[in-house]
């Protein structure tokens, strides 16, 4: 007995794990610098860690109150109704809910190329078909409504990543509005703001008060440092609460995740420190990397190193893990996550030595 034919589905290629690499190199994980998955180099909020410890005593129960509390806290923060916050098992889970709620078999979606792989994966899981719009290196990966509309052909969902992974470019709300104005009434524009906290561009959530064809994706994995908890959410149009009740996987956002999220959300200082640290790290990389880089709104920098796989492999042997962007269709680049000054200096020094 075998699963159905899954040859159309491509496995997700995650950034290299620190334990995995330490074992391969026969070194202590402490000696490695991991800047490959855009995690929070400053760790989680200490308040979230306390909340996780406390939640451990309550894990025999299904997460109901904590889920509602977190929905309410996020709704308050974004000035939307509680039902507009679709909590999920990571931003990836929220993408699945959107695909589940929007796509009928054979419906098409439009994704950026290069771009985050899970849009296409999620659409295919939900029997959707995937078309691409280009972000061009020659145009510094600029994101405009016009550029997306050139490729748009009535797709049901259009994904925009702002800040973009891996290029770091952004699409401000006015441009998202211009895009949504010119797509069909039954096209949803999903603005993925997984890295939104690191950017100075306002959130596209501000558009939700005026229209029902935009949704915004956010996560606790990046600025909040809770990637291991798997907690993300979509902020959706006004009257979609019923759809959430119909498409969500029961209790997919765990008690531990919801309680950690609530505590992290209250710790503005930790987020501010993280964002400030990431900005300093970005600036250091622009200034000190001896190769072309692109200005980034996220907690990472794309660097053109010539042969990304060679630099990735050689840097790893030096104990520095960066992201080879070959799987993004950018074999000449690596993506380096922002880190503490020590981590950044070591990564930049290592990469420069390999150029
Ligand atoms: N969107 C983008 C652009 C990402 O880079 C990521 C994480 N790699 C996600 C969404 C999803 O993150 P998570 O599932 O950890 O919330």
Helix content: 25-40%
The end-to-end distance, rounded to whole angstroms, is 50 Å
CATH topology of the largest domain: Aspartate Aminotransferase, domain 2
Largest sheet at a glance? Answer: 7 strands, mixed
Low-pLDDT stretches: none
Total number of helices = 12
Number of domains: 2
What does this protein structure show overall?
This protein is of the alpha/beta class. It has 2 domains: about 20-45 and about 270-355, Alpha-Beta Complex (Aspartate Aminotransferase, domain 1); about 45-265, 3-Layer(aba) Sandwich (Aspartate Aminotransferase, domain 2). It has 12 helices and 12 strands. It is globular. The protein binds 4'-deoxy-4'-aminopyridoxal-5'-phosphate. 4'-deoxy-4'-aminopyridoxal-5'-phosphate binds near residues 165, 194 and 227. Its cofactor is pyridoxal 5'-phosphate. Pathway: Amino-acid biosynthesis; L-histidine biosynthesis; L-histidine from 5-phospho-alpha-D-ribose 1-diphosphate: step 7/9. It holds the Pfam family Aminotran_1_2. Its EC number is 2.6.1.9.
Which properties best describe this structure?
355 residues, alpha/beta, Aspartate Aminotransferase, domain 1, Aspartate Aminotransferase, domain 2, 2 domains, 7-stranded mixed beta sheet, 3-stranded antiparallel beta sheet, 12 helices, 12 strands, 15% strand, globular, binds 4'-deoxy-4'-aminopyridoxal-5'-phosphate
